[in-house]
Amino acid sequence: MAWRLEVHHSTTYRYTGQVQESYNEARLTPVTGHRQTVLSSSLEVTPRVTPYRYADAFGTTVHSFDLHQPHDHLTVMGHSVTETSAPMPILNQLGWKDLRSDRAKERYFEFLTLTRLVDLDESMRAVCEQASALDDPTEAAIAVFGLVRKELTYVPGATAVSTTASDAFNAGNGVCQDFVHVSLALLRSMGIPARYVSGYVHNRPDALLGESVRGESHAWVDVWTGDWWGYDPTGDVAVGERHVVIATGRDYKDVTPIKGVYAGAALDKLEVSVELIRRA
Amino acid sequence: MTDLFEGYELDRAFDEMFGRESDPRAPYAALHETLRLLTNEEFAERCATRDRSFRDQGITFSLSGEERPFPLDLVPRVIAADEWALIERGVAQRVRALEMFLADVYGAGEVFEARIIPRRLVYSSSHFHREAVGVNPPNGVRVHVSGIDLIRDEHGTFRVLEDNLRTPSGISYVVENRRAMSQVFPELFASHRVLPVATYPARLLEALRAAAPGGVDDPTVVVLTPGMYNAAYFEHSFLARQMGVELVEGRDLVCRNNIVRMRTTTGERRVHVIYRRLDDEFLDPVQFRADSALGVAGLLNAARAGEVTIANAVGNGVADDKLVYSYVPDLIRYYLGEEPILPNVHTYRLGEDEVREDVLKRLDQLVLKPVDASGGYGLVIGPQATDEELANLREGIIANPREWIAQDVVQLSTSPTHADGKFQPRHIDLRPFAVNDGQRVWVVPGGLTRVALPKGSLVVNSSQGGGSKDTWVLADPLATSLQPDRPPAPPSMLSEQALLFDAAPPDPGPMDGMGQQQQQQQQAGS
Fold this sequence. Notes:
The complex is a heterodimer. By secondary structure, chain A is an alpha+beta fold. Chain A has eight helices and 15 strands. In chain A, the strands form three sheets. In chain A, strands 1, 2, 3, 4, 5, 9, 14 and 15 form an eight-stranded antiparallel sheet that branches. In chain A, helix 6 crosses helix 7. Chain B folds into two domains: about 400 residues, no CATH class; about 60 residues, Dna Ligase, domain 1, CATH 3.30.1490. Chain B is built from 15 helices and 24 strands.
C-alpha cells in the first residue's frame, strides 16, 4: 500500500556571536525514484536567501546558498510531500558468478570500493565468512544485516560523523550511520554492491492520518543483487512506505544533509527537528 | 686553438646537433659554425651578457631556497620546420582527444560503456572530482592551457612522456629565455628565421576571453595565484602583466549568489574568467579542503551556474593521471577516429597481476612513477636506484599498485650543453605549450627545452636541479609570409622574484584570520 508522507526537517545553528559570511550546501530534497514520487518540495532558509539548485554526481538535489549579512543563527528547513510504496519484491536475483563478473564489478565499482568511513578490519572480515559461504548473494546480504544487528547496539550519541565502520564495529555500538557503514563494508568485502541512503523513516506502521510524529534524519542501505533493493539495518526492516529517500552515495560524506564553511563566531548550539505526518 | 666541441662524445642516445658521423645536422649547420668559432673567453663573455640580462630583469633562480645564476644554457635547441609540423599536429590531436575524454568522464560516460577504459581506473584517480560533474564550460573548453611533455628516443622519434592539463608552468621561461638569447646572440637571430614565442600571452588572453560566460561582450579576466610564496609566482605575475589583467589572490575575490567580484581600490568589479594557478584542492573550501584560505568559497557553483569560467577546468587532473596516460592512444582512436601522431612511451599497468609480477622482477631496469605526481617527484630510475630504494619501491607497489606505473628507460636525446668549460652532451626533453580557444588548438612554436645538467642524468625537472634551453623552431624555408623573431622590445620592469618552472606542491600558506569552520550534523538514526 502506498503512503503519502509530509516531512518538515528543521536545522538551526546558533552561534556565540555574529557570523559575517556563510556558504552552505543542503541535501534535504527528495527526488522521484522507482519507489517514491515527490509531490512537492521546498527549502526555506532564515536569514532569507535565494538558493541555487543542482543535481550532484549521484543525482541528489542540492541547494547551495550563501549569506553575507551578519547573523547569529541560521535555520534551514526542508519541506516535502512524497508518495512512497511498499517494499518491492527482489526481482532478477543474480548468483555469485554473475555478481562477481568483470561487467558487474566495472559497472558498480563505486559501490564495491571501501572508503575512509566504510573500512574493514580483520575482525569484520572474520564475522562475514559464514555469510559469504551462502549459495545465494541475496541471502548472504540478509545474513549480513543479521550480523550487524547482532554485533552493534543502537546507542544514541555513541559515535560522531567521522566515526569509521571499523571503529563502530569494535566499539559494538553506534547510530544508524554506523549500522549502515558497517553493513556497507561487509557487503562490499563480499563483492555485493551496496550504497548509503539517507532520508527519513516514519516509526509507526500503524500511523494515524494527519498525526504529527517526531522523527530523525535516518540512513539505510541499498543492495544490488541484480536489482537495487533497500534494507534498514537499524530498524531491521525492509525499506518501504515508511521511508523517504533524500540522497544516495558511497558513504555519509556523499549525503551530508547540510555542510558549509563560515567566518565568524563559534557554533553554540545545534537544534534539529524532524516532523513526519502521514497524509494518506 | 681548440674549439668548444673538442672531445664531444656521442653515445647511444640520439644527439640533437650531431648525426652518427659527427657532422652537424642540417638545421644546426649555421649555429654549429658560429659556436665552433667562439673561444673560451668569448663564450664566457656571452655568459656574462646572459647573467646581466637576467639580473637586469630582476630574475634569479632559487633552488631549495638558494639563489643561483639563472640556469639557461646558451646552446639553443633547434627544431626544423617539418619536425615542428609533426609536433604541432600531434600535440593538437592529443589535446582534442583529452578534451573529449574529460567532457565524457564528467558527462555521459560513453567511453566506459564502449569499454575503452575501465571506469574503476578513472574513478579511482585521486584527481577525479565528482564535484565537477555537471559543470559545463561555456565554450566547451576545459584544457585552456596544456603542456605535453615530449622526449626523443634513441631513433630520434618524438614520444609523449606525460600530459599536464592542470596548471602547467614554464611558459615565462620560454619567453624570458628568448629575450635573453636575443641579447646574447643577436647575430644568430639575423642569420636564422626563428618563429616568435612572445605572442603567447596575447594568444592566452584571446582564449580566456573566448571562454567567458555567454552574452558577455567584454569579459574581465584575472590570474589567480596562491601568492608570492608559491614557486611559480614569478610566472603568475609575468602572465598577468603581459596580458594586462589583474593578478589576484583568493582573498581579493568574493562570490555572492554565484557572482564573482574582485575587490579593488575603487570598489568591486565583476569577474568573468579566472585563469587560476591554484590546485583544485585549494580552490573552493565549500567543495574541497575546508581549511584552504587560498581559494574562493562558492567558486565551483558559480562556474556550475555559468556565471564564471574557471581555467583550466576543475577535475582535469584525471586526464593527466599517468595510468590514464597509457590509454591515450586508444582514446585518440575512439574519439577522433585517427591514429596517434605522437606515440607514447611503453607503459606497464601494475594493476594487472601478470604485468606487475614481471615488473617486480626487474625493477632495477625500469623507470617507476607515481601516477598522480608531477615535477619528477617520487620518480625512481631503476638502474640508478639503491637496493634500499628498490626495496621500498617494491613494498609501495605491492601495497598500492594503482599508485604506480612503470616505463622502459628511454635514453632521452642529448644536446650540446656548456659544462666544465666545454660543450658536452646532456639529456633534454621538450614541453610544448598548447592553448585551446575553442576554435583551434594553438601550439606556441618552441616550448620549454629542459636539460638534465649532471652528466648522464635523465631527470630534467627544474625542481630536481634541471636547466633550460631556448627552443628555436625554424620557419619553413618554403613559406614566405612568416615573420622571423626579432629581438623583442624591452619588457616592462619586473620586480625581484624567484623563478622556478615546476610548481612545487602548493604551499597552503598561513591561515588568515577568517577562521573557517565546518558545520555538519550526524544522522542520528532512530
